[in-house]
Amino acid sequence: MSFKYVKINGSIADEAGCGAREGDRLFVDTDRRPGAGDLVLVAAGGVKKLRRWSPEPGQQLVGTVIALKRKL
Amino acid sequence: MKRNIVHVNTDDFYASVLRMRDPALSGRPIVVAGPSHRSTVQSASYEARAEGVTRGMIASRARRLCPGGEFIVPDWRLFRRVSREIFSMLSAYTPLLEPVSLDECFIDYTGCGRVFGNVLDVASEIRSSVREQTGLNVSLGIASNKLVSHVASRKAKRSNLVDVSSGCERDFVAPVPISRFPLVQGSSVHLLNDLGISRVGDILAFPEQVFLYCFGRWGKRIYRGAMGEDPSPVRSAGPEREVLAAERELSPDSVDLSYLEAVLYSLSEKLAEKLRERCEAAGEVMLEIGYTDGKRAAGRSATEPVSDEGAIFSKAEKLLGRLFTRRVRVRCLRLQVGKLSPEPRQLSLIIDSGLADKRRKRRLYRSLAGLRSRFPPGVAPAFGRALPAVRGGR
Questions:
Q1: B129, B151, B163, B170: best mutation site toward chain A, by most A Cβ within 10 Å?
Q2: What does the pLDDT average to over B246-268?
């Protein structure tokens, strides 16, 4: 397992409707193979997106989102 | 439906409450401990912890580590009042609130999203209302079960929120050091370290059957916990369960069992007196032993409702026999009675052949209590059992 934190800035789109917003940090497992419906961070055309996993061409999987951390 | 369990943890609760009471304490290391240099630290602020002070440490040692710290006697009434205020605010969102301690609780937010909205948004609202009304900060951990939400709130710390994605609970807990896992405490950490387990994920290198065989039910719970599973429900608290407590700090510390029993008897007398004043009986006796090295041992025993010192001591003595198993001197004894109920006045339907004896003893205890209230200790008559405690330690 390999984890890293990814900070959400303006260039990450939340297509999964998970409530993530700018300033949040994602705890991402870059080794885990996502199952259908898992929350994942993908890169497509230089833009990072949060979405529910389903294999699609033209996207690069950054990792599976294990947790979200937000400063209250 | 996927569960939505939230663990709410008030940041630096005791120090923050004391700072609210006295703003001059802001920024200073605070150590909450009894007045004696031999008392134990109940809580330490972040600043004091940075200097090495930990909960359970002897106050004299804490003073050496943190000479600039403010040592303050705990104000439990204030702490309980603030705690009740916070829990009352949280229970506006869900009836399922389970207090863990004065500064932590679980709430079950499952299904409440339809009424109050997304839990992430509500978390910000909770934080704001607690801050506005009490001046305290909270951290929140959100997950599909209690165990993982507890781990999440520990990672959150200092006004943060951590929300664990559903299905990722096992991966989330895997890198957690075993000493920080809620199910593992005290000497169990060393036991697991000896097995080569330093992180929670290491547990899964063993087959589950081996863990179950070696550690029984606890092993099964730990194993399932390492998989991120915890089916336990959030149990809402009933009316606050009151306990009466009496405590004695020994001077000097002692391993003399007969002396410890004498102290226990005098504590039983105090509690019996309180129960008589309140016309109540207790259905549970609890004992906590504090050793010189800072370790503690605690146990409890249910009983039919009792209000006299003989009956309380009988249970306490058995608990002492069960708990006092180490060859280390005892520093303090704390005896509590709980599950209080009004003292039964109606006669039992079951013919009790010892009833006359019980009535005689009760009259004797009441007479002795009356004498003790009129004369100082050492002068008033006492049971021989309690005399070593009345005269002082050895």
A1: B163
A2: 90
Shared domain for B259 and B177, answered yes or no, is no
| Domain shared by B222 and B252, yes or no | no
Question: What is the count of structural domains for chain B?
Answer: 2
Per the domain annotation, does B301 fall within a domain?
yes
Nearest to B296 by CA among B80, B40, B46, B104: B40
Q: Residues of B with CB below 8 A from A66's CB? A: 164-165, 168, 171-172
The answer to whether the beta carbons of residues B62 and B298 sit under 8 Å apart is no
Span B230-251, pLDDT tens digits: 999 998 866 556 788 898 888 8
Q: Are residues B101 and B188 in the same domain?
A: yes
Q: Is pLDDT above 50 for A54?
A: yes
* Beta carbons within 10 angstroms of residue B170's beta carbon: 17
Report the candidate in A37, A43, A47 with the shortest Cα–Cα distance to residue A60: A43
Q: How confident is the model at residue A43 (pLDDT cuts 50, 70, 90)?
A: confident
Identify whether residues B248 and B324 lie together within a single domain: yes
Q: Are residues B262 and B169 in the same domain?
A: no
Residues B97-154 pLDDT 10s: 999 889 999 999 998 888 888 888 898 899 899 999 899 999 999 999 999 999 999 9
For residue B90, give every residue at least 6 positions away whose Cβ sits within 8 Å of its Cβ, in sequence order, or none.
Answer: B8, B97, B105, B107, B126
Statement to judge: residues B262 and B380 lie in one domain: yes
Give me the torsion for CA of B373, B34, B237, B289, rounded to 10°: -80
Q: Is residue B222 part of a domain?
A: yes
| Structural domain span for residue B281 | 244-391
Q: What domains appear along chain A, each with residue ranges and CATH number?
A: 3-69 (2.10.109.10)
> Given pLDDT bands bounded at 50, 70 and 90, which one contains residue B316?
very high
Closest CA–CA distance from residue B156 to any residue of chain A (Å): 7
Q: What is the pLDDT of residues B184-213, one digit of tens each?
A: 877 788 889 999 999 999 999 999 998 888
Instruction: Considering only residues B376 and B168, tell me which one the structure prediction assigns the higher pLDDT.
Output: B168
Inside any domain, residue B36 = no
**Residue among A35, A66, A72 minimizing CB distance to B171:** A66
Contacts of A67 in chain B (CB under 8 A): 152, 155, 162-165, 168, 172
Co-location of B212 and B268 in the same domain:
no
Contacts of A69 in chain B (CB under 8 A): 155-156, 160-163
Task: For residues B377 and B391, give the distance between their C-alpha atoms in angstroms, rounded to a whole number.
Answer: 8
> Does B394 score more than 50 pLDDT?
no
Give the N- to C-terminal CA distance of chain B in Å, as an integer. Answer: 61
